[in-house]
Amino acid sequence: MREIARFDDQGLWSQAEAWFSRFGTLLATAVAFLDRSSRGYFADELALVLHVEVQDALHQLTQQGRVSRQIVSGRYLYTATDPSAQKRQLLARRTVELLPTVANVSVLEVAPEEVKAAILLFYSLLDEQQRRLYAGLESLKLGRGGDRQLADFLDLDPHTVARGRQQLLAQDVEVDRARRAGAGRKPVEKKRPK
Question: In 77-157, where does DSSP find H-type helix?
Answer without folding.
Answer: 83-98, 112-124, 128-142, 146-154
